[in-house]
Design brief:
mainly alpha, Growth Hormone, Chain: A, 73% helix, globular
């Protein structure tokens, strides 16, 4: 398919090239302030989600869970987090991002508080799933905002700032949650962490008012002249499209029902079939069949970009790596390395301190390289190559006896992972500016879906082998797959042609 066959807003945009003689526009102080405010929301996002992994011991004792079962408890969050990133991305492109962001933080904070009052494992998993619904809006909202307030040459750094909140949250959460749980129990911890979210909501709503609020809104196109307003009627959503998408949805429900005895695995397979099924259906149907429904048109435009599928591979490879570290590192230090609940929880913050350096350093480094004359694309790929080599340092921790050296290697791995992600986000913003939220939502959804499926597998490997060493080897080498797809499939800076239909 030629670019002109796509909807007008789906045509690939050229990636601007920054040169020493013609530097790109610079962001003002207010824009950077917004990035730091989103950094704070991302800190809270990770505090709410990571709390469970840090209190594995008391929760496993209370609900009688082994490593595989605890993996599915963590996946309850990631499953809804993955699935709802798709509608979240679509809605963020259309709703007032200021209110949407505030509502999302309030939702996930309330779900975190409610989890403290769970009488059974099923109820706890339900509240963790609701937490995932709210948190699924964080990255689409934040990337939508940086795409609106920052020029392309500044976005890697802006993304690095807000995304570093994940690493900071991962750093400070053990320092707060572990002592609180040790002294007061895990339920008090859930309540206190959740209350912090409502403080952020108040600050966000009060800070972004007046003319500054208008900067978070993409300018509307000018009203057409009266003589130009007559247009052919918009075609309705085709019957073929309705039947196709309905069939995908019905098939996913059938998978869940027929495999109900499998429990959480059946839910994972049902969600996976629904997410991938909708993408494949949108790609297989002709563009004309999708017109008449905004969500279907947007989805059809996105899946026709070759670069989108490249980023799917990148997202899966790096999200599996990152979520394994976030979810299982405290348990690894306590079980494989023989550390106590308090020591293992506190020391798990050290690698994520290094990850914070990676978030800011990865974005700043690609920005500095681009300022010297290299295109933003090439600058990012160079930085991500170095990041991938850093990630491999964690692949060998199962062979190391020294606990101190293991902490260092995990720190290097976390730093490389975070820096990799900061630059990957910038690529996601350049597929199509008209669908940034949708693209980020889909990519994050698929990446987190695969991570959700991998967490219980990691627990099973631990049960079978008695060690997380084989898992670290796998996740330490996996980002090479994403890097290879990006280097070979992204194309030059002037854009890649959409595939033919």
């Amino acid at each position: 398919m030629a670019p002109t066959d796509l909807p007008a807003d789906a045509v690939l945009e050229e990636t601007p090239t920054v040169t020493p003689t013609a530097p790109g526009p610079k962001a003002d102080g207010w824009a950077w302030g917004v990035c730091w405010l989103m950094f704070a929301s991302t800190v809270l996002n990770y505090m709410d989600r990571q709390t469970v992994s840090l209190i594995r011991e008391p929760i496993s004792q209370e609900f009688h869970l082994d490593d595989a079962g605890f993996g599915w408890l963590m996946s309850a969050f990631l499953l809804t987090y993955a699935f709802f990133q798709l509608p979240a991305g679509y809605l963020v492109d259309r709703w007032d991002v200021r209110r949407t962001y505030a509502g999302a933080v309030a939702w996930w904070s309330l779900a975190g508080i409610a989890a403290a009052f769970s009488p059974t494992l099923g109820v706890l998993m339900l509240f963790r799933a609701l937490l995932g619904v709210g948190e699924s809006f964080n990255w689409p909202c934040a990337l939508r905002v940086t795409g609106l307030v920052l020029p392309p040459s500044e976005r890697s750094l802006g993304n690095g700032i807000f995304n570093s909140g994940a690493a900071v949250g991962a750093v400070i959460t053990p320092l707060i949650v572990t002592p609180l749980t040790h002294r007061y129990g895990w339920k008090v911890t859930f309540v206190l962490i959740g209350l912090l979210g409502f403080v952020w909501v108040a600050v966000w709503l009060l800070a972004l008012t007046g003319p500054r609020r208008a900067r978070l809104t993409r300018p509307e196109p000018p009203e057409p002249k009266a003589e130009d307003q007559v247009a052919p009627p918009r075609p309705g959503f085709s019957t073929a499209a309705r039947l196709t998408f309905s069939g995908v949805a019905a098939g996913s429900v059938l998978i869940a029902l027929t495999s109900f005895r499998l429990g959480a695995p059946a839910i994972w397979w049902a969600i996976a079939s629904l997410m991938f099924g909708f993408l494949i259906a949108a790609r297989a149907l002709p563009v004309e069949a999708l017109r008449g429904a905004d969500w279907a048109e947007g989805l059809g435009a996105v899946v026709r970009h070759r670069r989108f599928w490249v980023l799917v591979t990148v997202s899966v490879s790096i999200n599996v790596c990152w979520h394994f570290l976030v979810s299982w590192m405290p348990s690894y230090l306590q079980t494989d390395r023989g550390m106590s609940f308090l020591a293992g929880g506190l020391l798990s913050s050290v690698p994520f301190l290094a990850a914070d350096v990676g978030n800011l350093g990865g974005g700043a480094l690609s920005r500095a390289i681009a300022a010297r004359g290299l295109s933003p694309t090439r600058a990012r790929i160079r930085v991500m190559t170095v990041c991938t080599l850093l990630i491999t340092c964690g692949a060998w921790v199962g062979l190391i006896r020294s606990n101190a050296l293991v902490i260092v290697l995990l720190g290097v791995m976390a730093m490389g992972t975070a820096a990799f992600m900061a630059n990957y986000f910038a690529f996601a913003q350049e597929v199509s500016s008209a669908h940034t939220g949708l693209i980020v939502g889909i990519l994050g959804g698929l990446g987190n879906l695969c991570a959700a499926g991998f967490l219980p597998v990691a627990g099973m490997i631990k049960v079978a082998t008695g060690s997380f060493g084989p898992v670290f080897l796998l996740v330490g080498l996996l980002p090479f797959v994403g890097l290879g797809a990006l280097a070979l499939g992204w194309g030059n800076d002037r854009g890649a042609e959409p595939e033919a239909t």
